[in-house]
Amino acid sequence: MSFFERLKYTADGLIPAIVQEQSTGRVLMMAWMNRASLETTLATGKTHFWSRSRQKFWMKGESSGHVQVVKDVAFDCDGDTLLIQVEQTGAACHEGYKSCFFRSVTEGAGERVTEAQLQTPGEIYGKPGNA
Fold this sequence. Notes:
15% of the residues lie in helices and 34% in strands.
């Protein structure tokens, strides 16, 4: 049995993928994969995902140039989550931060930004205000 058959996808055929920077252990993002995006990720060595909002297959960095080179792909004991370790170029977050997890919750249900923004979305995508 290949590992593909051991994975547990949602009813929509998706599985969550946590992306972690291999060199630092920092969690960069979470995105959804289907079997085709996982197969393409393994074949190319660059992360590919399925966008639920756009109903579209996409490669991380296809418009920004901030690609993720895959170093390791693992799956959890239940087979329902992937952990992908990468070498990240530039910002992983479409808002220009190294990680999508750049905000922490504060007392009273507030929030605070926990890291510096590397670029504005306009700098990333070449269009002001286009995230």
